[in-house]
Design a protein that fits this description.
The complex is a heterodimer of chains A (242) and B (224).
Chain A lengths: L1 E10 L2 E11 L4 E5 L6 H8 L7 E6 L2 E2 L7 H6 L1 E4 L11 H11 L5 H14 L15 H13 L5 E5 L7 H16 L3 E5 L3 H7 L2 E6 L2 E6 L1 H6 L4 H11 L2
Parallel strand pairs in A: 3-8, 3-9, 6-7, 7-8
Antiparallel strand pairs in A: 1-2, 1-4, 4-5, 9-10
Chain B lengths: L3 H5 L1 H10 L8 H23 L4 H15 L3 H16 L5 H26 L3 H9 L4 H31 L11 H12 L2 H30 L3
Classes of the chains: A alpha/beta (242), B mainly alpha (224).
Amino acid sequence: MVEFRNVNKWFGKLHVLKDIDLRIERGEVVVVCGPSGSGKSTLIRCVNGLEAIQSGEIAVDGKRLSDPGLDLRALRAETGFVFQQFNLYPHLSAMENIVLAPMKVRRLSREAAEKRAAELLARVGIPDKADAFPANLSGGQQQRVAIARALAMQPKIMLFDEPTSALDPEMIGEVLDTMTDLARDGMTMIVVTHEMGFARRVASRVVFMDEGRIVEDTKPEAFFAAPQSERAQQFLSKILTR
Amino acid sequence: MDFGVIERNWNFLLVQGLIGLGNFAGGTLRLAVPAMLLGFLLGLFVGLGRLAKSRWISTPATVYVELFRGVPLVMVIFWFWFILPRALGVALPEYGVALAAFVIFEGAYLGEIVRAGIQSVPRGQVEAAASTGLGTAQTMRSVVLPQALRNMIPALVTQFIVLFKDTSLASIIGYLDLTKAAQIVNNREIRPFELYLFIAVVYWLCAYGMSRYAGYLEKRLATA
């Protein structure tokens, strides 16, 4: 579904992704973790072309991102992205946030788009918030609207960039529950997160990054029971003893 | 003091001078309102142009802004009044000259306001729109501009007030606006104190009205 082949990326002189090789199959839920600055956010931002890479190859659903004939908009329409800061449109209601892209990109009628949006709001557990504006929603509710907005495009894969890092502790659970449901329904997901409980319960694989490299790529049971690298051991001991 | 001069010339000052309805071409509002609308339209293109990725668009937009922001308005009006008709070989009416001068001069300032407004919208908004497959133009129209416009309101209204008051400069090429109307009446009746106090109040009331309306708009559009 997603394939990285020998990918390198620099921000100026900073080498942020080093020789990344990664394959993610349909239906997999891959949790990417690692210390801050390790390149994990950059990694998933490359998948839908929010960041460009300098060498190597990324393919999504068989389409190479470097292909000059690639329809990047079509690829993004099929690749849901959820941001740490939600990035809901503050001037639009929850409903309008969700129907915008289906109507503009997929040319759905308003009725069809709103019907789908209402179903999605119910699915993420806030059916009564259709007319609320982002400013009047809690962080957890905003992030669930953002998930619904991404799902409204009926993506083949969902990318989550630290979806719970900007949330108050009591709201993290509701967002993780939504994501867990999504994973159980068979969605292919790449999730950058520090929520190790989620990784343990839901992930099919855990990818550990450090200083721009993938250091470990293994099953969650193996990762948590016996991390191979010293760096992953340190990371886990810090994050799990909190 | 004899404020009878205002009463005697009420129609000439306000209906002709301020609004621009009457036997003569002219009018402060008939000049200011289209100049604001057209100037803003131009400013929109200039502001977007300055942010364009292509240098073929951004460089001319930048040159335009720097050029017209760096010269006095009176001079622009003179250029249009004395040089343009000669260059084109046709006589141009005061109204057309004044309107063109104001639109092109103000377009530079309004373009900068539009640019700043667009840049005030967080990058994450554009990324969110892009990640759902919206194109650049759709993102601009549905996501960025509505938020940018709201952020622009204070600066925009300040500039509109400046423009509104600056239309009094059109009187130097003979355009019959409120200031020119007061001058004409004064030449006849020699009542400078009463007349210039009166038009000062009229200008102030209009400007204050715009300012209040902007405050109302800002409140109504406040989402955060």
